[in-house]
Design goal:
295 residues; alpha/beta; seven-stranded mixed beta sheet; 17% helix; 24% strand; globular
Length: 295
Amino acid sequence: MHFLVLGASAGGGLPQWNCGCRNCEDARLGVIPPSGQSSLAVSPDGESWSILNASPDIRQQMLDCPKLHPRTLRDTPVASVLLTNGDIDHIAGLLSLREQTPFSLFATGDILNVLAKNRIFDAVNRDKVLRTPISLDQEFALQPGLSARLFAVPGKVPLFMEGDTVQTDLIGEQTVGVRLTAGDKIAYYIPGCAQVTPALLDQLSDADQLFFDGTLWDDDEMIRSGTGVKTGQRMGHISVSGPDGSVAQLAGIDAAKTFIHINNTNPMLQPDGPERAFVESAGWTIAYDGQEITI
């Protein structure tokens, strides 16, 4: 399996347009590489690609990756797009893929209903882009030679669908992880997850490669930095650090492990910082735009 990291950041990207935090300023100065909003491309052969989550930055992300350029007059090497939730940073890019070129669109029924309730997504012609609902725990062909299976992970509904009461550890079709198989290789993509449960640990036990939610370093990061008023848990994201964080909880997973969907405030983005040293010493890598991984 071949992977292209199209976007390593959480919603807003790095630098975020309205943010002057240390990471964003360093990204503007070139100290830290800028990165787009979370999206990953995967291929069984390096020629035909499936995109996992269509970020608002997808046009530039595809421009920056020659392997995703058209090969003839009207063409794309993108065979399919798969959505893992209905967040804006994962669905808005569909509107940039509306120019009448066919590909397959896969998601759970709940996620496809988010698109159906927003008429703007009708601009993506259903005659050209077939919307296929996928049941949880159902194996299906993402493209020839590449199979996928969706499974529930703790999460919440998209921000724009929240009501007065928000449950952030829902288990269902609104937030899913993806198990990918090609030949004898197995990879997982989980850009959003509120907690690591025993069921999730069991699920990941066969992983060769894991891309996992790296949004925040600790739960009150945005409050402490003055950039927000919500905790990570309130946003539906597990922290990287701490005894209940992803590094500790996933320590027993024997796979290559990569953090993706990283918020602009996360201190592990600092190349010489102790946070980055910590995650790297624990066997993790931090995704960056343009990164290529083959397993």
